[in-house]
Amino acid sequence: MHVELLNASDAVQYRTLMLEAYTLAADAFTSTAEERASEPDSFWAKRIAGTLQTSAAFGAFLGQNLVGTVALEFASKPKTKHKGHVIGMYVRPDARGTGAGRALLQAAVDYANVMPDIQLLNLSVTEGNEAAVKLYRSFGFETFGIEPMAILTPSGYKAKLHMWLPLKSGHLI
Ligand SMILES: CC(C)(COP(=O)(O)OP(=O)(O)OC[C@H]1O[C@@H](n2cnc3c(N)ncnc32)[C@H](O)[C@@H]1OP(=O)(O)O)[C@@H](O)C(=O)NCCC(=O)NCCS
Predict the structure, then answer these.
(1) What is the pLDDT of residue 168?
(2) Residue 163's closest CA among 71, 68, 85, 82?
(3) What is the per-residue pLDDT for 51?
(4) What does the alpha-carbon distance between residue 71 and residue 76 come to, in Å, rounded to a whole number?
(5) pLDDT > 70: percent of the chain
(6) Cα–Cα distance, 7 to 131 (Å, whole number)
(7) Nearest to 160 by CA among 58, 28, 50, 39
(8) Residue 14: how many CA atoms within 13 Å on its side-chain side?
(9) Of ligand 1's atoms, which has the minimum distance to the CA of residue 126?
(10) Looking at ligand 1, which atom is closest to the CA of residue 97?
């Protein structure tokens, strides 16, 4: 298994993997598979490599096959451009438990760490998603808030934990 920064040539595999994610791990995401399936190709191209460094996506590959992914989105407004948002973390069920999630998150954190403006990463995770919460905590992400009734799932409303990871602590004011 190896992790790479995705590029435009990965867009078809990336879209297929994310549509699987929204279907098989529906409660982990805010968007539905139906919503995302109707997005134009430009949506996936932008997610993989936004113009003006507004996003980046990483892929875990077994051979040529994309088996996991995570992406970063960066704010462009002057007052919020110090923040990066971790989104779309997913590893195929048969590839889990072998370090792909950890390798993907490490690649994303390393990428953000060398972006001069980025001082912190944030993310949200559905309550009860212990695998994801444990992974994020192991990188130092801390919960700063819990949003009640954040998403409606087939088993009712679920809360979202909002977590953050300060980077480059020496530069924080
Ligand atoms: C969360 C997810 C990405 C983890 O991917 P993974 O490749 O299995 O993770 P790794 O094998 O790299 O494990 C890394 C760490 O995650 C945690 N973890 C992973 N699976 C776990 C499980 N079943 N139970 C508890 N902790 C788990 C552990 O801290 C683990 O470290 P350790 O092996 O040293 O204990 C994967 O379970 C997944 O895709 N889930 C469905 C989608 C999802 O929930 N996405 C998160 C949206 S916020």
Answers:
(1) 77
(2) 85
(3) 64
(4) 16
(5) 95
(6) 28
(7) 28
(8) 26
(9) 48
(10) 11
* Ligand 1 center–CA 100 separation, angstroms: 8
Which atom of ligand 1 is closest in space to residue 102's alpha carbon?
12
Which one, of 43, 96, 102, lies nearest residue 73 by Cα? 43
Cα 13 from Cα 11, distance rounded (Å):
6
- Going from the C-alpha of 19 to that of each of 23, 36, 80, 89, 91, the distances in angstroms are 6, 7, 29, 12, 12
C-beta of 25 in contact with ligand 1 (< 6 A): yes
- In order of their start, the domains of the chain are 2-171 (3.40.630.30)
Separation of alpha carbons 107 and 3, rounded Å: 7
Taking residues 89-112, what's their average pLDDT? 97
What confidence tens digit (pLDDT) does each residue in 37-47 have? 999 999 999 89
